[in-house]
Amino acid sequence: MAPWFARLGSAWMILAAASFAAMSLLVARSSQQLGAVEILFYRTFIGLLVLLPPVLLGRERVATVHWSGHLKRSLAGYVSMALLFYALAHLPLATAVTLNYTSSLSFAVCCVLLRGDRLGHLVKMALLLGFVGIVLILRPTFDQGQWLAGLAGLLSGVGAGLALFHVRELGELGERPGVTVFWLYCLSTVCGLVWVLLQGGFTPLAVSDLGLLLAMGLLGLLGQLAMTRAYKEGRKFVVSSLAYLTVVFSALLGVVFGGQLLSLTALLGMAMIIACGMLAAKGS
User: Torsion angle, CA of 109/110/115/121, rounded to 10 degrees?
Assistant: First the structure.
């Protein structure tokens, strides 16, 4: 009999959502000592250290001929994560995560602009609903003078949607998900190292900082691997819907660990963005 975890299917996304929400909380905590670029470097570097041994021992093959696709996917993903980490440092946890999860809308727009796809009625409805939700979430953000962080969170969703588009392209070329994940971590770590050095180098870390960063990196990798497996083994619409549990988990963590009570307007906007994401997934 196969082990229980081999039969999870779509439920892998629940593990991924919980991991990403916990990672986002740790990113927000780490931002009290470190900048977004440094935090992002540690997030990808720690994951890369875990992914490297099987590659170096020859147990995992990551050679590829699709360098152009990996470069575009990794650049979009890296910029998206950097913007999200900045937003997490300045906005309530659930608000920043929700803005990043407008990626389903950006993905639909990318399919229209870059592939010439036609939108179905459900996707059109999702775009309209998502736009209203974004306005509701950003309104209190702009009222509090946090417009830059709000814009960063929204642009992180644009970058994530573009990254998803390139993941889809790589999949159509026959690239294995594990190869895509490895090169994302590898190329992002290189970009992060260069950026940190250009900014003047690394900030000295305390022992407590190391533990926080290690947990963040491992949770990010766990979320990435669980999400990849969910999309491989589960039903597409169910998996896409369960992904929005990250927003719910983030809201709960924000309340429990940060006392971040959201306004009714913000909660309504979050609900609309979750609904639009589910509609877009069902209509695509």
Answer: -20
**142 within 8 A of 150, measured Cβ to Cβ:** yes
0.85 surpassed by pTM: yes
Dihedral sign from CA coordinates of 166, 168, 169, 170? positive
The DSSP result for 167-232, as a single string, is HHHHHHTT--HHHHHHHHHHHHHHHHHHHHHHTT-PPP--HHHHHHHHHHHHHHHHHHHHHHHHHH
Cα torsion 89, 92, 93, 98: sign: negative
Tens-place pLDDT, residues 30-50: 998 899 999 999 999 999 999
DSSP label at 1? -
Query: Are 192 and 45 a contacting pair, CB within 8 Å?
Result: yes
Comparing 206 with 72, the larger pLDDT belongs to: 72
